[in-house]
Amino acid sequence: MQSKKQTIHDIIAEKTSFEELSNLVQFYLQSNDHASAQIVLERAKEVIGLADVDVQLAEGKSPSIRHQSGTTVYDEALRKGRWVCRYWSSDGKISPEFHVNEPLYDTMVTLPLHTFCLELDGQSLHTHWEWQGATVRLEQELRSIHSIVKLRHQIRPVEVEIHTRLNGTPFLARWLTVTNLADRPAALSSVASWSGPLWTKKYTGYYLQEKPEHPFHLGYYASSLSHWEGDFAWQPLSNGIQKISGRRGHSGYGLPFFIVRNTTTGEHFVCHLAWTGNWAVELLCDAEPHGEEANLIFRAGPDGFAPQRILAAGESVDTPEVHLAPIHGDLDACVQASHRHLRRSVIPPLREDRSFLVQYDTLNEAGNYFGDKELYPEYLREQVDLAADLGSELFIIDSGWYGKQVTHGSWGIAGDWHPNDWLGKGLQETREYVRSKGMLFGLYAEMETIGFDSDLYANHPDWALMRDGKRATGWQRDKRGLLDLSKPEVAEWMEEEIARLIQEYDLDLFRLDANVRYLFEGGQRIADGYVESTFWRYYETLYAIWERIRRRFPHVILQQASSGGCRNDIGILSRFHEAFLTDGTHLPRQLHVHNGLAIALPPEIFRTGAGLPWPPSEPRGSLATQLRIAILLSPPMLVDVAVAPPGSKHIQPERIKLFKRYVDIFKNVIRPILRSECRVFHHLPITDTEVRDDWFVIEYADPAGTSAVVLIVRLAGANSGSLMIHPKGLRKSARYRVDFDNIRDSFTMTGMEAATGITADVGQLYESELLIFTEVNH
Description:
9-stranded parallel sheet, 45 strands, TIM Barrel, 778 residues, 10-stranded antiparallel sheet, alpha+beta
């Protein structure tokens, strides 16, 4: 054995590149020499810095695979024709084989332990699978390990590849490749990319003096309504099935995301579903009341009317990814683990000189907010001057610049992506003027939308998404619909039109919007004797288009919005650098949106209009509060109608001074924290167990604990204007200067002293305070 290892090490010494080592791993796996493959794998992991990741394969009569990433251990096996979960561990503990094998079959026939769900032509295929082999790939660019288990069904001619990606964080990413091996089409009725037990009999209620009635609690986004993004709520799970879903034609204002907490062990599971269409998550709770055992089973995947996808003979399709992690810790630990994972593996990176910029958006489009379109070029030039004076770094022309006619909202002419005549010399002149002021240039377009008054629709009425023989729209009187991206010619036109706009106008930023809401079941496609829902094809095509655009134009910032934030799932976010947070910018709604979404998603990816209340009649707080919210909760996007409404010839100097002050604070204090991959701490209103209405308190801190900021806003339920806060992101032994923005005063204290409490005097309803902590020498 020693001789064999030495020979392998000699071979490794000759293979100096990552590609050579990766190929060598595949060679040994295909030769069923797992011991040699493991030795080479360890060396390859060193090359790409993946010490905390491992995959162990066992073949033979009882095939199994164990994944380790960070402190996560996840073990699966093929037993009696079922691919099942044997156990999870959140602390890195590996269970002995005899602990997990003996009781497995008795459990799996009483509980759904299978780790994926698949229905073809209405038949559930959770049993009768046979092993076809497994491979392990190393992905240098993603700094990850990717395992693939291949199974074939013994009855139906179908093959499934089970993909798992590990990157050293506690999260595993899982998806399936389903291949129709038959000589005729098959209807994919339903699929869950991942399913199975989160906890099985792992329950310590027996040892607790007071046994909880509900051992499991669910945290999720409860609302699917516009302006209610981030509506995070906790609820106990009773016995039976609890379903959360998005069924409005997109992932929705409530994200496909959940946290479940085991109240008896201190553990959580955190889950993202990377899907922008209709989706569903089911949680089956099976607990003995006040007893010793409790089981929690889940499934997550796309949802919709069957068939969701038709597979032609020999065709393969990938299911949406599920990202799942067990976390032993509190809510802050779950949040920070989720953010680290998404930054590392989901959100595309941006060059530093193009990340976290102060943006200025001209929402004041001609024919909508602006009265006299003939004066618009002059107004636009004035806005460029104002944006530069405020310290903006990127100038965006929003909707209304396109088409031959000017209509309210410009929705009816979406698709005609050519400048209107009233722009004078067109977009190029504005772009050059923007660049002369030292700013980057961005442009808005609703590329997926087709307006029914547009030339595009007049020439191609068959390009609109159809349902029941009619145009599928968000509501009956809607003047636009979606392009049917299931048609290759439509997808090709859209992709080339995006590329044309980027090239013709030399864009630094492309701002995508999609304002067709509430399509519910979406469109239909008749093929092979089936009426297929088009949503699956629609979103897989949309993803592929934007992946190619990002590779083709790597310097361009890609920003996405959808009627505010109605599709901020990680499926679409993995193709874009930035996302629009919400149209609900009034108080306290905007604070709840920010606070709730920052549980699932890192705050630096979001943009929202600074100082722009919507609806306009709703409260917004003082200007200082508006700007503190704008600069702290996400990189600021200043909006023309909020800074200087149309026709304003004079802007109060104090107002401009305040804008400049907070832009400077963002650039010099907050942006460095965001660029450090900051830690987010939720103080109020969302806690580990409840949602409150008295205060909003959130904290960002750099990973080293050298700087932090805390925003405090008084809400309606507060009984006084003062609040004691306890910063969480400071080092106890360090000394900090603490700046109080309201009184423009500061003092020094240690992190230990700060942890005992700092009193902030805020004042009236919707007034605020910003605390800045900076480490200083003793």
